[in-house]
Task: structure prediction
Amino acid sequence: MTATSFDTNRARVIAIAADLFARNGYHGTGMTELGQAVGLGRGALYHYIGSKEAVLYAISKDQVDKMNSYAEELLDQGLEAEELLRQMARGLLRNIAEHRAEWAVFFREYTALTGEWRDHVLTARERYEGYWRQALSSGVRDGVLRKTPPLLVKGILGMLNYTYLWFEPDGKLSPDEVADMFLDALIEGIRA
Result:
């Protein structure tokens, strides 16, 4: 499917909005500032995004949807639990490294969403957590991991998600190396 110029322009507006929201906060960024940053007047800007909250929704939901799709693909491959967890962690950290602004906005600002938009984002996030629970449960079922409390998933994701604050894509370690270090420590702690 070929992207239209509308899709390309909309994606550009959303990417610039993500940078501005990550830097200045959702409430600290006005539509005038966003319009100036993308070089569009008010009417053209609204043509691409509809509303400021619509942009926040797009930023917040897009990366979570990508991670849900990635987790579904991995689960369909029938990987052993440890490899499944490792690939899920690597995929998440690669995505965070490539989309730091979007993740910063998601983690800091999604609570500004209202109504169905907030519900959709929370549902997508819960679905992603569910894939992690499935991966851990498969390891317990296969006898390679100890049973752990469901709350552990929030701890694992917190450990991985927090990297948006400090990970440097051009630093000494790659996203995969950081994910592997975290997963090695985790798996050693819960291996059966």
